[in-house]
Amino acid sequence: MCCIGIDIGKTNIKLVVLDRAGEVVGRQEIPTPGDARVVDVIHEMAQPYRQTPGHDVSLGLSAPGLVGPDTSRVVCLPGGRPAIEGVDWTEELNWHARVPILNDAHAALVAESRIGAARGCRHAVLLTLGTGVGGAVLVNGQPLQGKSGKAGHVGHISIHPDWPVSLLGMPGSLEYAFGDGSVPQRSGGLFPDTRALVEAHEAGDERATSIWRDAVGHLARGVATLANIFDPEVIVIGGGITRAGDALFLPLCQAVAQLEWLPTGQPTPIVPARFGSEAGAIGAALYAREQTLTGGEQ
Questions:
Q1: Which is nearest to 261 in space by CA: 220, 222, 218, 229?
Q2: Tens digits of per-residue pLDDT, 209-255?
Q3: DSSP 142-207
Q4: Distance CA 221, CA 140 (A)
Q5: Is 238 helix (H, G, I), strand (E, B) or coil?
Q6: Which of 58, 158, 256, 286 has a C-alpha 20 to 30 A away from that of 169?
Q7: How many CB atoms lie within 10 A of CB 79?
Q8: Mean of the pLDDT values across residues 128-156?
Q9: d(Cα 144, Cα 45) in Å, to the nearest integer?
């Protein structure tokens, strides 16, 4: 069965077409409109793939915000962009099958657990390290959503009580400790973003090295906390920061191994994500196909 995934991002809308093996055989990307026209754009993108006789096509969506437990709509999207809050996509698109929608981080973890870095795992944690810190948790093979859809927002665990309060009201969040958006504040204006900080660290800048080591140490405390709480088979790190390679993964794995509870003596593997910016769309497509094949039962 061919499946379609559409990721409704704040900047761009991405569509992927997957074949039966999960390989991307088609893709499209357009800028996200700044108003309610985003629904019309989704209609236009999906239209060419509507069911034809003998060719079932499943369709799934991913987007920022909180998704209701029935995965039919985004129920809370702070800031209101993109303009999709409350839209029931199965009803809106009049598709031949149910159209589920997942939070974008949840969808990315579905992609990684089905055909990516966590393939074959029933229990996994994903952290996406970018402007902020996002994440998702896989439990018994399915993304953990919780009663209201907010499960998996790992960037808002508290690392230090005296640091600034996060968007969600958490003092000293992991997002502040490691997110790209706080680098100027954390570095006293020396570095504009994580990339500049890492490049300076690798060039031997002692101040950059001190700031980077502190940030990795804070990240390690967050990761070890998640490992102890969820006991995953693997922790997947995604986002642009993975381009730092050994500068990130070597000190992070060493620090986590010293902090994590190890009843078996083996630390939880920490690995880079396989998929980049298309992860949400790929995961949405795979999830929709599973829902179609199982009739929505998990």
A1: 229
A2: 999 999 999 999 999 999 999 999 999 999 888 889 999 999 999 99
A3: EE--TTTS-TT-GGGSBS-TTSPB-TTS-BTBHHHHH-GGGHHHHTTTS-SSHHHHHHHHHTT-HH
A4: 25
A5: strand
A6: 256
A7: 10
A8: 92
A9: 29
